[in-house]
Amino acid sequence: MAHRTITYSRNIFLPLTTVCRNRCGYCCFRTPAQEGCLLAPEVVADTIRKGAALGCTEVLFTFGERPELEFGFAGYLRKTGYRRFLDYVYAMCERSIEYGVLPHTNAGILTYDELAKLREVNASMGIMLETTADIPAHRNSPGKKPEVRIAMIEDAGRLKIPFTTGLLLGIGETPADREESLTVIRDLHRRFGHIQEVIIQNFCPKPGTPMAGNPVPATEEVCATIRLAREILPRDIAIQIPPNLIDAQVLIPCGVDDLGGVSPLTIDYVNPEHPWPEIGRLKDLIGDADIRERLCIYPQFIERGWYPPVLQPLINRLAHTLDQRKHP
Questions:
Q1: Yes or no: is domain 5-326 CATH 3.20.20.70?
Q2: Looking at the whole model, is its pTM more than 0.85?
Q3: How many Cα atoms within 13 Å fall on the side-chain side of residue 11?
Q4: Which H or E run includes 133?
Q5: 3-state secondary structure of 97
């Protein structure tokens, strides 16, 4: 058997807003429009500067879906100097590029034109499929309808956006639903070739949410899903797990390729009770495999030129930087 290499991205996690139109049964991230619900541009800039100084190569911009539909949000947005939230996101991506860090945006549901606009300033983008099943946890979340999310992943493929998606396990889906979800992702990739990684993420119950008492998927169950994913998905799609949410040491042998974004600076704002492992200790999680840092756009998409021209100098420079870290 060939020697395995496990990858990760050194990132900055920036939640631009916690306001969201969805009301998922497991979420503690969402808040109403209120003071502090939107990161000020100067806070974003300062955080990116600090992350760049720590060697981060990716800014993960995440936020609630369609926050402008929530009462009161527009007033807080205007305080930042922007009238449209998409313009604010675009400007923060430009700021990230200015400071030498590649943007990766998880925006929730976007139209084709909105995806095309953000593609101009992003190295990669993503949205979790979560499940193709119609589940109670998504009853009050119009953006979580499977057909809506699948349509957006299709649009990303048409636009040649290197894309991340994934499954969320333990939110009411069945094993058959998981298999169907992975098959849908496989078929989308066969059509467009744009899926670079699939996250297999376990549900983590949050106090004060409707699903606070629901059980966490057993490690064996997650392992079985990883093995299933490896059987269904093409080899050019990496299988990723979040090392702060589950025992990566046990799951790596199940078929994991990647540990996702790990930040030396910011917390996981979606799962704040679960700190990242220290980057210097990631090697301890992966047994006899090698650990290698990567960019948020995978090498095969760099080779194809699937990125906006404005990012070419930065991608080249950061790729060289990672090569220097590997071979000092």
A1: yes
A2: yes
A3: 26
A4: none
A5: helix
